[in-house]
Amino acid sequence: MIGVARTAERFIHTNFLARQRIRRDSDSAARDSIYLICMALLVLAAFFFALWIRIYFLEVGYRISDAYRTHEALVQENKKLKLERAALRAPSRIERIATAKLGMTLPRPDQTVTLPWSK
Amino acid sequence: MVKMRMRTELTKNIRYVGVGLLVMFGIISLRVFCLQIVQSDELKSLVRGQYQTSVTLAPWRGTIYDRNGSELAVSVEVESLYARPRLIDNHRVVAERLAPILGVPPREIENLLQSPKPFVWLQRKLSPSQAEAIRELKIEGIDFLKESQRFYPNMELAGQVIGFAGLDTQGLEGIEREYDRILRGTPRKIYVDRDARGGRVFVEGIQNPDQTQGYDVVLTIDKNIQYIVERELEAAVAMGQAKGGVAVVMDPFTGDVLAAATVPRFNPNRYADFPPDTWRNRTVTDVFEPGSTFKSFLVAAALEERVVRPNDQFFCENGAYRIANKVIHDVHAYGWLDVASIIKHSSNIGASKIGQQLGREQLYKYVKRFGFTQPTGIQFPGEQPGFIPGLSSCSEHTQSTISFGHSITVTPLQLVTAYSAIANGGLLMRPNLVKRIVDATGMTVQEIAPLVRCRVVSEETAATMRSILQQVVAPGGTGTRAAVPGFAVAGKTGTSQKLDQGEYSRSKVVASFAGFVPADDPRITVLVMIDEPQKMKYGGEIAAPAFSKMAQAILNYLNIAPRQPRYEVPAVPERTWQETKTTFQHFEPLG
What's residue B57's pLDDT? Predict the structure, then answer.
């Protein structure tokens, strides 16, 4: 911070103050003022940075909240679909459709043909 | 000079001001230290109370699967309707609008709305269509809360095994109760910020949201085998006009219970509509006298102890045998029978004599070895151990009756586990109902491996027993109707009289068949037990055919191809006590 202040002072002195006829004690006062202004600007910058970080955290927090709600909704949707699938695949339902609607029956032993295992 | 004095005064004043500023700065620093460090925790909690709130992440109950990953029990979110009576102007109008949707009389709803309480439930766990219809009414003072509801998508299938969860999703019966702590999950509290509108801001994030969900339980039950068994059992119970029935299917080499059926069944989705005694899994909670199905273990013990050989002859007293002051009867009168024929024709007298030869101590030893009169260790609540009279109080007559499966009580699970020991070469397995526990991400948390409890008989004895038990299903045996075309079947029929007011009843029996198939390479052990059939009272008449149908369908499902038996099963000729011909010259044990 001190280095920045010195650099600023040199710049101002070279480009502005050196071109004016200023008494010795005015130069010193001006230098002090420059230091103070630079320090104040830095403090202000730090304050705004902290504020920006806080707002950013809040925004991320809202996004997490939304994402959590979406996650929960999707988990529930997934469970409901699994439940529906399980109900559709219930053996009693499958047999009912196979026998009543499609006219299928269980094969008799004489209807089963065992094929030899071929390598 | 004056100028210099003024300058000195100025410098001194500046110093005083500087010191003053330093002191003030020091006080402020000290105060900041007290607030930030010393009183930090206290102030944080105060601040938290103002702009933070805690949120409890409600746990979701884990899912129960069958061995192939099919859902048997699932929890989903449903909406429950509540009212804030003070915010409702006209209770009667609101009640009349809600009544047709909720399916309750308007008066009932009006009574709830007139409650002095600030919050009342109107109906818990609505269907989606009900919630949608009520939402469209846009009634002030009523709202919804999300709750978890348990569903069993296969209805009655394996109802007694799975059990059910109550209104607050706590396990009340069956696996739901036994594994309640694992299925339930753990609620987790996290802190979130509140914004000006009261909304929640998760500034700390949510680590592992799946951690709150309960673990999933994978059973050994196969949904399709369970269905086959329940279907055939119900048909047998209906055909025999029986009181009920039980059937168990087990993998003899792992002890996995592939199906455990109890009839009459119940629907866990509406458990309150069924009588409580239908909720019981009778394969583990009920005991019965096994009758002739127990003879297999008597003969196995006698063979193992080498007190008998398969072709030893016993005189079966032509059907009536006096022991002490009581008479033991056979269904048919037999003369000389060898050991295999005693099993084939199920002679009680022959079994008594084998039991006498074995001796009381050895008999009791093998009762315990085969796992009877003690819990099996299955992961299920309410298991009964069964009963046998104490050794010291076992009379000669009691020893005889134990030999043919009376005066001893066993559970169906114990019986099928003991038959599995014969099927697998002599090892008593621990029956398993749970295969593994997995977390919400699908990772296995615990795997339950097959466990050998002990060796009950040698492989040689088990092989001999497998051959003998095939005689039962061969022509002339009591269990010919248990035969499965294309497969060798080994098993034993049983018809045991039930005790009725202290006496054995002639009308109330338990008809059973226990066996395994294919006999030369067992894949399944099956027990069918029909309780109090009114028609077809013998095990060979009602339980054996049910066994055959179940076994055939299960072997089809498991893609096990039919094959002829390895050897021809010889017919065993009838003998009278005058004939002393050596039998079973063709006998050839497998193994």
Answer: 65
Instruction: State the DSSP code for A102.
Output: T
Say which of B76, B199, B227 has its CB closest to residue A79.
B76
The closest alpha carbon to B564, from B505, B485, B511, B510, belongs to B485
Q: Is A22 exposed, middle or buried (0-12, 13-18, 19+ CB in 10 A)?
A: middle
Structure tokens at B120: 């009342």
Q: Where are the alpha helices (DSSP H) in chain A?
A: 2-15, 24-88, 91-96
Please report which confidence band the pLDDT of residue B590 belongs to, taking 50, 70 and 90 as the band edges.
Answer: very low
**Residues of B with catalytic annotation?**
292
What is the mean pLDDT of the segment spanning B58-64? Answer: 86
- With an 8 Å Cβ cutoff, are A109 and B192 in contact? no
Tokens of B42: 């206290």
- How, if at all, do strands B326-329 and B336-338 pair? unpaired
CA distance B391 to B27: 90
What is the Cα Rg of chain B in Å? 36
Bond before B264 cis per omega within 30 degrees: yes
What local confidence, expressed as pLDDT, does residue B585 receive?
35
> CB neighbours of B329 closer than 8 A, spacing ≥ 6?
B319, B320, B321, B348, B349
A79: chain B residues, CB-CB within 8 Å? 74-77
More confident residue, B300 or B323: B300
The structure tokens listed for B298 are 């008597």
Distance from C-alpha of B125 to C-alpha of B145, rounded to nearest angstrom: 9
Residue of B nearest to A92 (CA): B227
C-beta neighbour count of B44 within 10 angstroms: 11
What pLDDT, in 10s, does the model give residues A102-114? 999 887 777 777 7
Cis peptide before B518 (omega within 30 of 0): yes
Q: Would you state the pLDDT for residue B27?
A: 92
The complex scores an ipTM of: 0.74
Query: Which one is predicted more confidently, B502 or B241?
Result: B241
* DSSP run (H or E) holding B370: none
Residue B143 near residue B94, CB atoms below 8 Å: no
**Interface contact flag, B155 A90, Cβ < 8 Å:** yes
Distance from CA of B71 to the nearest CA of A (A): 6
**Cβ–Cβ pairs < 8 A, chains A and B:** 80
- Identify whether the C-beta of residue B433 lies closer than 8 Å to the C-beta of residue B220: yes
